[in-house]
Amino acid sequence: MASTFTDLPLHYPSLNEFVSVFRYHILSAIAGFIVINHFISKSRYRSAHNPKGLPLPPGPPGLPLIGNVHQLFGKSIVPLLEQWSKEYGPIIHIRLFGLPVLILSSSPVAKELLETRHQKYSGRPNFLLASEAMQDKMMMPFIHANERFKRVRKLVVTEMRPAAVTEYFHPVQKVEIHRLVNSVINDPKEWKSYIARAIASIIMTTVYDRPIKSGTEAEQVVKNVVRLNEQLVEAIEAGKNTVDFLPWLRWVPFAPYKAYSKAYLNLAESTYKQLMDDAKANLEAGKPARSIAARLLQRPEEQEADYREQYWGLGSFYLAGSDTQSVSSQILFMALATHPHVLKKCQAEVDSVVGPDRLPTYDDEADLPYIKATVRELFRWRPVGPTAIPHASTESDEYMGYYIPKGAMIIPNITSIHMDAKVFDDPETFDPQRYVDNPSLPGHVFGFGRRVCPGQRVAEETIFLELATVAWGLNVQKQKDSDGKDIEIDTDRGRAFAPGGVMKPYPFPVSITARSAERAKLLAATVEDEGL
Ligand code: HEM
After folding, report:
1. pTM over cut 0.85
2. Number of domains present in the structure of the chain
3. Where along the chain is heme bound (predicted)?
4. Is residue 212 within 6 Å of ligand 1 at its C-beta?
5. 172 Cβ below 6 A of ligand 1
6. How far apart are CA 427 and CA 414, in angstroms?
């Protein structure tokens, strides 16, 4: 996968390459051990605590041994889960090899299990590849509900509490969004690269005081962070992480995933540590503490997490916050180009509150309810993480007359939850007005309960200021063909987005221009003043 904004000299074997080289080893390993895995999981399942003999929730029939694996891998998961939820209801059971998996497809069901009963549902599945092998169980989104999780979660939540977001993130978000919109005016074809750079820079500046100035100037350590993120996303894409469902592979010497994971882990460990060590060295040299890393190091007495947990904890900011925000921004441009009346309403609102002579700021937020509602509707309409991050049950349970085994993977089917006609009128329509009229309508793109995204406020604030500034300064429209007709943009959830854990739109044509020469000039002057 090519990086969007930095040159990446490191060559890292992708899992794909790896898999193709070791295809025969993998196939024979799978064939040899699948039977063992089946019997291990069966016996575990039979001895599970189900005294009433309750049935498992309904679901599509699977095959012996592999369960429903063949129906999932290599497919676009969003339409499949939507189809299953229509056929089997709000709680579905499938099996991936020996692993029981529950799919939750309604807001009340997901809230009951993942929020009200959070004590039983705040674990994470055993991500053997992404968590254990590649990240030594240190990376927060994948850590089980254990003591380390509590220490790291406390650290991360503290650094993203509302006051900290206002103080640390807002000034950086403001400058980066101005640069983003200004760059897009000057070079509209590269709009996606500018988004990726701005989002990455917001995180790297706030967390480590390492702004990303331009692609070629990026420091090696920053390139490594980008690279680590790309490799991880690739490794956890559906179909490449088979080892997660064949846990016995860990005892197989030279199992194909091991060398790859080791190289990844070495780079991750040294990169996250170096970023923290540098912050420490800067503090000791008397430089001002401008980053979250430096401020954290200034308060050692408050930290329950040890040094290693601290640097991995801060590493999770980029990993969890870069693609999610960057892709949400791409979907924003898609939504605006395909819903011109929404952009017009956002423009009218920002014009009436801000006017042409200054740029919108966070102080305007309370006066821009339609723009805020548009951000919420964006996250509802095309949720960037259509299956969030799966939870795991840490105890067996009973719900709606069904048995829920301990250790089950729990997948929130966010798309179906957001398209539930019982909750949202005309759910297929992109209509921000619904959140203006009824602010208590739900939205679950940031997950649930004890594992809810700690970066929610950061992300909402990024997209809010981005939309307000885009509405203030830009026209975003469909491109025209040579006959002057609109080139249509496909927004279909199945067709228009690449399969995977992040709902990334395939490239689409869009026309981006400044609303007026005066506004473009004011923006350019502001960027010049703000420097970097
Ligand atoms: C549009 C942007 C974002 C979306 C849609 C998003 C979504 C999510 C979701 C669905 C989860 C899992 C929740 C669950 O398990 O129930 C999560 C976890 C997490 N997110 Fe975000 N996120 C976004 C941005 C961010 C940002 C900007 C940061 C940090 C700067 C961040 C940091 C994290 C971390 C550290 C976790 C792990 C929490 C845990 O495992 O307990 N996220 N996010």
Report:
1. yes
2. 1
3. 453
4. no
5. no
6. 13
